[in-house]
Design goal:
The complex is a heterodimer of chains A (about 220) and B (about 120).
Chain A (H helix, E strand, L loop, with lengths): L10 H13 L4 H20 L5 H17 L14 H35 L14 H13 L8 H4 L4 H11 L5 H8 L6 H29 L1
Helix pairs in contact in A: 1-2, 2-3, 2-4, 3-4, 8-9
Chain B lengths: L2 H10 L6 H12 L3 H8 L6 H5 L8 H15 L3 H23 L22
Classes of the chains: A mainly alpha (about 220), B mainly alpha (about 120).
Chain lengths: ~220, ~120
């Protein structure tokens, strides 16, 4: 049998190569790869022009290897409308998606690890110590253990300013970033350390008022 | 032949499923580069890529002969040298596998382990 030319394979040829793979022909894996690798890679590159060509080649190669190692995965009788090339395209496209997702997961993990590694650097997070990843994890653990806040008694609500009500709402939503409260209080032009102190004072004050209002509310009941 | 398919074939050669793994073992044992390997097989270098992507011949004698025959008929390479390459690779892999398991023929080079009253060999 003469070597197959890349890109010229038709449906019957594809079935022929597949049948030879199933029959254990030692040359069939070579024919399959030599015939389909290049057109499959080129098809992926055309479909995803922004991706690195190496990723397309990897996905194409993986799809081809999968059929070589497990030719039973392609069932011509079930995939009547799909030629072997169509099947390989579907497989390669799915593998490319998996590669992309794996890369995104890797990037995200790398970014979060970098953040943790850099967290002790003073001022790295725009002076907001609550942006320290170690602190975030700490807060998350505290939050998961903390009970849900009680609704604001009317006696307290009527005495609060709109800023204080918004602050309480944010605190109930477990907002921890100093900068968010500093914006609300209109003190972002102050030094970071001063912002932190002012926000803490305002939060402590609201906590106390809420506690007192809660106690009074309980006594009324 | 594109460089990409060549690279794909070389990558696949790390998998013992492919004939490329046997050719790589043989080339390493004979200190052959691609030109040397092609010369040994009696073909041109370009043919090494499709050859690498063939399935490695099965070890059972009858199947081995049939597989070598099919590959030789297709690529017109030297049958004796191809058989020798695969057999050499099989032998090298057996040795490596035996060594990895920590027994077999490499055991002779090891110190005897202490076991009860048995004393370590001083010879």
């Amino acid at each position: 049998m003469a070597p197959l030319q890349s890109g010229t394979l038709t449906l019957p040829d594809g079935r022929n190569v597949h049948a030879r793979l199933l029959a254990g022909d030692p040359v069939a894996p070579s024919d399959l790869a030599m015939t389909y690798f290049e057109p499959l890679t080129a098809w992926l590159e055309a479909l995803y022009p922004r991706l690195h060509p190496h990723e397309c080649a990897t996905a194409a190669g993986d799809a081809i290897l999968a059929v070589i190692k497990n030719p039973q995965s392609y069932k011509p009788e079930r995939q009547r409308r799909e030629s072997l090339l169509g099947y390989l395209r579907m497989s390669a496209k799915a593998r490319l998606g998996n590669l992309q997702r794996a890369e995104r997961r890797h990037s995200t993990r790398r970014a979060s690890l970098d953040a943790v590694a850099l967290s002790p650097v003073m001022g790295k997070y725009l002076g907001d110590e609550d942006a320290d990843p170690a602190r975030i994890v700490e807060h998350q653990e505290e939050e998961s253990a903390a009970p849900a806040p009680a609704p604001l008694p009317d006696s307290l609500r009527t005495t609060l300013s709109s800023v204080e009500i918004e602050m309480l709402r944010l605190m109930d939503m477990k907002e921890r970033r100093t900068i968010v409260f500093a914006r609300l209080l209109g003190i972002v032009d102050q030094p970071v350390a001063e912002q932190r102190r002012a926000v803490k004072r305002a939060k402590d004050r609201l906590h106390k008022r809420r506690r007192r209002a809660g106690d009074a509310h309980d006594q009324e009941d | 032949m594109t460089r990409r398919i060549d690279q794909f074939a070389r990558t696949a050669s790390s998998d013992p499923f492919f004939l490329g793994s046997a050719l790589a073992d043989y080339a390493a044992s004979e200190h052959l580069d691609d030109a040397g390997m092609a010369s040994a097989l009696g073909c041109n270098e370009e043919l090494l890529t499709p050859l690498r992507l063939c399935r490695r011949p099965r070890p059972e004698p009858a199947l081995f002969r049939a597989d070598i025959k099919a590959i030789v008929e297709r690529f017109a390479v030297n049958a004796d040298r191809l058989s020798e390459a695969v057999r050499r690779s099989d032998a090298l892999r057996r040795i490596r596998g035996t060594a990895a398991q920590g027994d077999g023929m490499l055991m002779a080079a090891r110190d005897r382990e202490r076991n009860g009253d048995e004393t370590e060999s001083t010879s």
